[in-house]
Amino acid sequence: MAETRYSKEHEWIRLDGEVATVGISDYAQSQLGDIVFVEVPEKGRKLTKGGEAAVVESVKAASEVYAPVSGEVTEGNAALTANPALVNSAAQGDGWFFRMKVANKAELAELMDEAAYQAYIKGLG
Amino acid sequence: MTEPPSDTPLQRTPLYDLHRALGGKLVPFAGYEMPVRYPAGILAEHLHCREGAALFDVSHMGQVTLTGDGAAAALETLVPGDIAGLAAGRTRYTMFTDEQAGILDDLMVTNAGDHLFLVVNAGCKKDDFAHLQKHLGSRLKIQEHADRALLALQGPQAAAVVAKLAPETAAMKFMSFGQATLGGVACWLTRSGYTGEDGFEISCPADQAEKLAKLLLGQPGVKPAGLGARDSLRLEAGLCLYGHDIDRSTTPVEADLTWAIGKRRREQGGYPGAEIIARQLREGPSRKRVGIRPEGRAPAREQTPIVSTDGASFGMVTSGGYGPSVGGPIAMGYVAATSAKPGTPLNLVVRGKPLPAKVASMPFVPHRYHRG
């Protein structure tokens, strides 16, 4: 199974061949609470590492989801439009946000691996 | 509802330890560390309030009593509500206004017989107390009850829960006041709330608040709810949040709160800004607070620009989000009075994109008060 890597902004990314799947971490969904709306990027949209890529809204507030690496969107998760709560129930599975063709795989190495991310969120208290 | 961090240390309510023990997520609100939600989450807490009974800690709010001859007449010099006409044991919603008819705070006033009991917003209570002292201090005894906690038990099962502990409360109607002992704790109760549901706001001595809260939470059907659910519940009920939907820049007429201005007070005035309010009542305000239903799924949050279908700017969303009982986005905000009719189409500019919406009548969820 491909390795999952994480950004400091709590996005996860998993590369499978040329295409990576992106979502928000289980920690992020637990912090946000009940997700009631998700806006995913459309196919073909060019994303820049650290740039705005999607929107996730809880009952209480709207938050940005950033692109963990640069690339081009190949697919947004249409299931989230009808069922945004998938992000709560399966943040790192069926609740993925979008898939993208990664421009520069070296950018993945700049992200945290599972152990580093777990240590990172532990440090957030 | 959350605020940027400040250097002032946050205050805690008497239920702080209980919130921690219940797993509440604490956030700064109006200078207090308050639970925004518990492990169940805002959605579940909100829905539970609409079908069971939800317990909220609102001890951050200000509780003030006014005692002395002519207290009602004196308070009328600061508010447009009919306080002199408020019968003993009855509660009324009103607001402090300034000379420009702006709203300094909104509040509940109870005629408790030999005194008036006021509940004011946490974020305004210091200013309100100074305002009362300045204008009424020479005539009345003004007492701030920082030694009291305030709990709200809200929802269709709330009345049965309270009646089990104090049977005499069953006879209380919406917006009435009574004193009762709940599990040995002497309480001041008003049958009122901020959710659109039946229920009580319960004032008790701070040092007994935890005992009372635990007693209530131990009753079948009662679960804790945080400020997040309180906000979504009151938005669905079409109720204003001070500092957002109403403030010094809005008048009671613009805010569609004219129902709270007594008939006698409209004719006689005698409170700050009365001339402006009389003129707005006569001629109609230029803008009005309305309910708004976005047509899509995207919530329109506070500060979302409201534009007409031809692109003219109207105003701003003052409260907006997802209504769990509505099952979709809801908002309120100010629009030109000519476009305030329910059904009027408009656009909400969310993340730069105009999204279609319509003016909607409020409440979004029908009130279920116990009018008896």
Could you say how many structural domains of chain A there are in total? 1
- Span between N and C termini of chain B? 34 Å
CATH level-4 homologous superfamily of chain A:
RNA polymerase II/Efflux pump adaptor protein, barrel-sandwich hybrid domain
CATH class of the domain at 16-57 and 147-236 in chain B: Alpha Beta
Q: What keywords describe this structure?
A:
heterodimer; A: 125 residues; alpha+beta; OB fold (Dihydrolipoamide Acetyltransferase, E2P); 6-stranded antiparallel β-sheet; 9 strands; B: 372 residues; Gyrase A, domain 2; Elongation Factor Tu (Ef-tu), domain 3; 6-stranded mixed β-sheet; 6-stranded antiparallel barrel; 9 helices; 19 strands; globular
Short description:
The complex is a heterodimer of chains A (125) and B (372). Chain A has helices at residues 26-32, 79-82, 86-89, 106-109, 114-123; strands spanning 4-6, 11-16, 19-24, 35-39, 46-47, 52-58, 62-66, 71-76, 98-102. Chain A is α+β, with helices and mostly antiparallel strands and 125 residues long.
